[in-house]
Request: fold
Amino acid sequence: MRMGIEQCSVVVPTVGRPSLDVLLDALAAASGPRPAEIVLVDDRPSGEPLRPERPGLPPVRVVRTGGGGPARARNLGWRTARTEWIAFLDDDVVPGPDWYSRLAADLADLPVDVAGSQGRIRVPLPEHRRPTDWERGTAGLATSAWITADLAYRRAALAAVGGFDERFPHAFREDSDLALRVVDTGARLVRGQRRTTHPVRPVDRWVSVRVQAGNADDVLMRRLHGRGWRERAAAPLGRRPQHLAVTAAGLAAVGLAAARRPRAAAAAALAWAAATAEFARARIAPGPRDRAEVATMLATSALIPPLATWHVLRGVVRHRRVRPWRGLPDLVLFDRDGTLVRDYPYNGDPELVKPVPGAREAVDALRARGVRVGVVSNQSGVARGLITREQVDACTSRLAELLGPFHTVQVCPHGPDDGCTCRKPAPGLVEAACAEAGVDPARCVVIGDIGADVEAAAAAGAAGILVPTPVTRRSEVDAAPRRAATLTEAVDAVLAGEW
Reply:
């Protein structure tokens, strides 16, 4: 079946740079059919609302992260979209005039084992002079593998691996990490024909010093993907071994001088100076010879080796016990009585629907990260003749008024002896909720206050978290694979990827 571009959403994480207007103008002027929507993810901690409206754009929706970094911003974007494909663009690129048409052609009739399609990136360099060190580095994007400056993924592929690993704080390696995890599922990534320009953005003279923080991300990549990750991700090692040697020589010079060994200290200092000079020469030679660029290269060439080494060591310490990324679940299902609201047995009165402390904040925290929420509730009072289904529905409507809308609500009206497949601890309610949401149960979490809740989760293939109350049996608490003292604590664990 041929996929139309209306089954694609465009996600653009942004920090409100002026280049965003250039991107939106290009998308407004481009020819061809429009995608379902553009999702702008405002990743600023604060600031004036974005003003993306302009004629020619598809529907535009703005969501905010509050400043979580590029990986979290991209995750929020795709989680809030509901199309089959998600096309990521950076906020400093300029899509070609036929980008929509070429995107549609790139995604049409792709085999089911293809999970992603990469656009072709062009980095324009100055024609009247040699490129600077920063410009040469940016030009590498044109040949990089699987960068999300222009990359479309199947939404199902993103969901299967938990999306971008938010432990990568900078826009540096999270692209490669995601691609390797997707490929590890047996899927393929291909290169399309659409073209996007990535201009070299203006920077200050110390940018090469700041980007050394990415060395810690390289340590995380090795922890997650093993020694061969560079070959798989087409990521060259660069000068890290030389940086380590230069730093060692500098430290040796200082240490030997302190130990009053002047000749040895001088030899180590000479080695440091020679290696630093070689590094500076290698950066200066292919670039412009103007005074400002040469001065910048000399200063930063002395700083980069020790900073790169420091960030490597920081990564070794920080990521020494790292686990594979699970990401956030696609769906969190809550038991109603005793979990979201105070438990009044067989309650049919909406006025008695009273949320437990922190319930609204917990549910809203999930929604804010793009996680869908639902309710799965046993209501045997209907079968016993104590309440009507209409009363149950009225209480559920009141719950939505107090806590906000739920993506799915599943209720079992049967009694414990009716032999149904929906009453928890049977998996029916959880399975029905996942089916309605289009979610794999393996990407679902069930939070409840009794053993039947977590047993239903396990039976459906979902994760379960028990939040005990005074009525929870001790045996149920002991048997629960995951427990939390409060609803807030349970949701915090989910948002931290501990589910």
Summary: The longest helix spans residues 291-318. The chain has three domains: 5-203, 204-322, 331-495. The mean pLDDT is 95.
